[in-house]
Amino acid sequence: MLHFSNRLVIGGLLCVLFFGCTQKPSDSTRTDDQGSATTLDVTPRIERVLTREERDQLTPDDVIKILKEGNQRFVSGTLTSRDHSQQARKAALGQHPKAVILSCLDSRIPVEDAFDRGIGDVFVARVAGNFENTDILGSMEFGCKVVGAKLILVLGHEHCGAIKGAIDNVELGNITAMLSNIRPAVEHFADYKGEKTGENDEFVHMVTEQNVRMTMANIRAKSPILNEMVSNGELKIVGGIYNMETGTVTFLE
User: I need a surface site. Which of 60, 79, 141, 149 has the fewest CB within 10 A?
Assistant: First the structure.
């Protein structure tokens, strides 16, 4: 009897050492800094992707509204929870994005997050200085005319290095040719009386906004396909400026 009791004691010690005496918390709970249990909502709210029917029912103005509301959620820290693994699987056989967003290369602009969009929601093209060229225009024509996106958003941002480089006439390898696409926005302010350098935040902002507006105009001028879609009311081209400090996008419609 004593021998059996000893084995029970040893077994109990092994249980303590290897498994612990307390119940393992579930994945839906955690302990906060004060030691109290807090329930977490770990179930994603969205796991499907946009369908063609849903996208086709939208107007360009609807898409603008969706992006504005998504940006408000981004700024307030209430992004929609998504199951990206499920979305990736469900988007594998087709895509029906509602917008094309032309953004700067800058890594500090999380384009999809900035508008609270998921997989399959938007096309994103990126180039330093967010200007158009033949490849970008062809991509936009594919996204809008072929696939059916209802909106093109040209998204500039504050403190843009490409804008500052164009203002300061930076010359370095292929960067020199790249910045020549932005120079017309700088030259637009030939009569500006202030300091025309990348250190002048006011001037940088002026050129940033002008670059967006010129890009919007160039898209229509250089793409008869997209221009016709705009004229027919099938497409809108708008601009926006992303604020680095707040994440807010100010639309230039």
Answer: 79
DSSP calls for 181-192: TTHHHHHTTTT-
The two structure tokens encoding residue 235 = 């497409």
Write out pLDDT tens, residues 233-243.
999 999 999 99
Q: What is the pTM of this model?
A: 0.79
Q: Which residues are bridge partners to 103 per DSSP? A: 126, 155
Task: List, in sequence order, every beta strand (DSSP E) within 98-213.
Answer: 99-103, 122-126, 151-157
CA gap 18, 209 in Å, rounded: 63
Tens of pLDDT along 17-52? 333 433 333 333 333 333 333 334 445 555 566 788
Mark 152-172 as b/e (b = at least 16 C-beta within 10 Å): bbbbbbbbbebbbbbbeeeee
